[in-house]
Write a structure and sequence with these properties.
461 residues, mainly alpha, Growth Hormone, Chain: A, two-stranded antiparallel ribbon, 71% helix, globular, disordered N terminus
């Protein structure tokens, strides 16, 4: 049977497959961020309270392990659980990439991930299975996240760097539409019908993501596992190995951004719940709704950045990938300082004007569009073809390490003033920006060398 000509299936200058992958991620992120917007508040307001905490399988053991250093407050414990959960969500894509490359292929691995995540969201509807639910979500996300991103990269030829970057920006817009809508819907349902009803909505939306992905199969590139035998692929040459190490360095440089920005999803929501004036003409606004604001910022920024980067590309003035990543970190630092300023000007509990939170969160969304889609586009372009899936999974090592560290950093929130905490958060991002600007030249020279080159030296030029 003849393979369909997928390259001819285009819409708006991009392959139609891009839009099916974007809508799959839209619904997946809808469910994921809808759940995570509730997670920290759910833990400190219900799950860890008497009458609930005794029924959660394994939670007492986990808390004992976290408290080996010293007893901690419920908020500190919830911050650590959130940090480890969100960190492991970004670690398991390495496993998912290996499964796709060596066993199932990307398409089947993504479907497996969607099924596991659906089961995890459903298990969140019960106190007893809380930790089981987190485990299922971690494993499912590992199968899905990196492999969908790798499939986006596979839609474009290696030389189409600017077009590929715009494709990832469109893909990331789908992510952010889902991330913006998820907290609004699940937060609203949870406010009316209870926490578990909100988690149940997330389960249904994850199944919708699966249906969307299956519907787009005819447009997706063929996906077959490479297999485990070395004879089936040539060994990496010296230039390819060097390229991989440089990509790992770039991934590591995004760790400060991934500590500072996602802090708004956990501690940021707690800060809003405690410090921000949430009164409105229609009643009190649920704090969880603010987890949509940074995604709205990304959505608003996307068309502007697509036009801006296309205009800069025509004028040969578009920042390179590392330049965009550094700009993103600067914007994160400025956004965190907005939250610090609001806290300093209105230190009384519940008196910070909502405009400070809105401004900081919107700026975080703009920053994310600069650094994260750019990182994925860079890895998909520059990674050696035989390890693209694994390297796309490895890109998520940055948020794994960073989110885990952010849980530890966030556990000190109730030991500081809010203004001091957000100033520290801004400093973390500023340090990351300085490192990227300092190393941009030597790393960029290696990434721009053809893989056939036998000698590439970081100290050249």
């Amino acid at each position: 049977m003849t393979e369909p000509d997928r390259s001819a299936a285009e819409f708006g200058g991009h392959p139609k497959a891009l839009y099916f992958l974007s809508f799959t991620e839209l619904w997946e992120r809808f469910s994921f961020y809808g759940m995570t917007s509730l997670l920290t508040l759910y833990m400190i307001k219900q799950l860890l309270q008497p009458g609930h905490v005794e029924h959660v399988a394994g939670l007492a053991t986990l808390r004992h392990a976290f408290e080996l250093r010293a007893p901690m407050t419920d908020l500190a414990f919830a911050a650590l659980v959130y940090g480890w959960y969100s960190g492991l969500v970004y670690f398991t894509p390495i496993l998912g990439g290996w499964i796709a490359d060596r066993a199932l292929g990307a398409n089947r691995t993504v479907i497996l991930g969607a099924l596991l995540m659906s089961a995890g969201h459903l298990a969140m509807a019960f106190d007893f299975s809380f930790l089981i639910a987190l485990a299922l979500l971690i494993l499912g996300s590992g199968c899905l996240k990196g492999n969908i991103s790798a499939q986006v990269g596979a839609l474009y030829p290696a030389e189409a760097e600017s077009l590929r970057a715009r494709g990832f920006t469109i893909f990331s817009t789908g992510i952010n539409i889902g991330a913006a809508a998820g907290p609004l819907v699940t937060g609203g349902v949870a406010a009316i019908f209870g926490w578990h009803a909100g988690f149940g909505v997330a389960a249904g939306l994850m199944l919708l993501a699966l249906v969307t992905y299956i519907a787009g199969q005819r447009y997706l590139p063929a996906s077959r596992p490479v297999g485990n035998r070395r004879a089936q692929r040539a060994p990496l040459n010296a230039a390819e190995r060097r390229r991989i190490w440089v990509l790992f360095a770039v991934i590591a440089l995004t760790i400060p951004a991934e500590i500072a920005y996602p802090m708004v999803w956990s501690i940021g929501i707690v800060w809003i719940d405690q410090q921000v004036n949430l009164a409105s003409a229609l009643g009190t606004i649920p704090a969880s709704w603010f987890n949509s604001v940074d995604s709205i910022g990304s959505i608003l920024a996307a068309p502007v950045l697509i036009v801006l980067w296309a205009w800069q590309a025509r004028r040969k003035s578009e920042p390179d990938s590392l330049g965009k990543i550094a700009i993103g970190m600067v914007l994160i630092s400025l956004a965190a300082m907005v939250l610090a300023a609001g806290s300093a000007l209105s230190p009384a509990r519940g008196q910070v004007a909502a405009a400070w939170a809105l401004g900081g969160f919107l700026a975080m969304g703009l920053a994310w569009m600069y650094y994260w889609p750019t990182l994925l586009a860079l890895v998909s372009r520059a990674a050696p073809r035989s390890v693209t899936g694994a390297m796309m999974g490895a890109a998520f090592l940055s948020p794994f390490i960073a989110h885990t560290a952010a849980g530890w950093v966030g556990s000190f929130y109730d030991q500081m003033s809010p203004a001091t905490f957000w100033t520290m958060d801004a400093g973390i991002a500023a340090l990351g920006a300085a490192l990227v600007f300092a190393l941009r030249g030597p790393l960029g020279r290696v990434l721009n060398q053809p893989l056939e080159a036998s000698q590439v030296n970081l100290s050249n030029g």
